[in-house]
């Protein structure tokens, strides 16, 4: 019972104990040919990259570590032994040495790794990942990095999802659809540009001719967590409705960005017109602030890493109509769908 308690306590504290520990990754041993040259070196490099992203270890440059192994003739017969790991740890001042192997059985490629305490030679963590194609080795290295850093499968998936949600990227979308105001309507086209960083979500959209009204919308929000961002959007638009005349307006809208999954992104802005001016049959009419609701909603669903489907709905000031002896805004509704691209040069 005591041993079970100590083991459970060790597993719970392991992520904390590993935080910032100095570690070196040794080139993995190829048990048999797996289908690519220098597979052991490739896996080691991929593992280092993923471990660095997680930040649980302070990693020693692999090239320098390899020189020490050559000079000391260590690991020449296969996977680095615990005794050899202790020797490497003393030479380099490491807390942990990470080593492992890769082999292929049938179509399945198995990568195993272990974390060795460089002071005691104790194996404190092990991990294994299996893939069915050599092209999926990066996925195996990523999974191993999480396991060797002390994360559970559930935590790994949650962290991976959070990382994908906040991944730095930009997109350009094109859409078309129907625009209507009062008894008039027509087709309209538009453009959506989005850009995400770990801290900010930014979007710009515009409705272009030949629709009965045009507008531009700019939004910026700060990410409060991987799922939600809160910010502000502003809109400026102009409309022409025959036979009445022209109108201009400006709106301010509090904005919420929502990312329930790494593939689905939404934006909702709700606010009001803060400025409006309309030409009603030759008469200029100033509209009172906050006299009409403004809204902008779009949703993007990624069908691949570089392409997504886009749906966009807006309700903005269009023109004024007489009502009860005065005037009020006739809201212009736009319903559009399109496609958005995420090119590499915007990452």
TrEMBL record:
Keyword Signal in annotation: yes
GO CC annotations on file: outer membrane-bounded periplasmic space
InterPro entries recorded = Curli_assmbl/transp-comp_CsgG
**Record keyword Cell wall biogenesis/degradation present:** no
- Species of origin: candidate division WOR-3 bacterium
Q: Where is the signal peptide?
A: 1-23
Pfam families assigned to the protein according to its UniProt record, in alphabetical order: CsgG (PF03783)
Q: What is this protein called?
A: FlgO domain-containing protein
- Print the keywords alphabetically: Signal
């Amino acid at each position: 019972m005591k041993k079970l308690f100590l083991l459970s306590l060790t597993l719970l504290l392991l992520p904390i104990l590993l935080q910032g520990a100095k570690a070196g990754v040794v080139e993995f041993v190829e048990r048999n040919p797996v289908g690519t040259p220098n597979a052991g070196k490739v896996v080691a490099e991929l593992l280092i990259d993923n471990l660095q992203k997680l930040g649980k270890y302070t990693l020693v440059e692999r090239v320098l570590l390899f020189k020490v192994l050559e000079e000391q003739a260590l690991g020449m017969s296969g996977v680095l032994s615990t005794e050899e790991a202790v020797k490497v740890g003393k030479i380099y001042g490491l807390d942990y040495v990470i080593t492992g192997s890769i082999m292929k059985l049938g179509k399945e490629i198995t990568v195993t790794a272990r974390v060795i305490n460089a002071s005691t030679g104790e194996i404190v963590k092990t991990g294994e990942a299996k893939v069915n194609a050599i092209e999926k080795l990066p996925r195996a290295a990523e999974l191993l990095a999480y396991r060797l850093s002390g994360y559970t499968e559930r935590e790994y998936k949650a962290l991976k999802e959070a990382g994908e949600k906040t991944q730095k990227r930009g997109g350009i979308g094109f859409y078309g659809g129907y625009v209507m105001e009062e008894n008039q309507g027509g087709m309209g086209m538009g453009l959506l540009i989005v850009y995400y960083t770990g801290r900010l979500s930014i979007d710009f959209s515009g409705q272009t001719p030949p629709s009965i009204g045009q507008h531009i919308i700019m939004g910026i929000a700060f990410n409060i967590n991987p799922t939600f961002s809160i910010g502000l959007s502003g809109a400026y638009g102009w409309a022409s409705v025959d036979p009445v005349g022209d109108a201009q307006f400006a709106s301010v809208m509090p904005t919420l960005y929502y990312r329930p999954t790494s593939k689905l992104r939404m934006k909702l802005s709700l606010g009001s017109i803060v400025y409006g001016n309309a030409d009603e049959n030759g008469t200029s009419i100033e509209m009172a602030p906050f006299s009409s609701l403004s809204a902008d909603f779009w949703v993007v669903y990624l069908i691949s890493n570089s392409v997504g489907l886009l749906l966009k709905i807006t309700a903005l000031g269009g023109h004024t109509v007489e009502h009860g002896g005065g005037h009020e805004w006739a809201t212009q509704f736009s319903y559009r769908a399109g496609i958005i691209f995420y090119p590499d040069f915007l990452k």
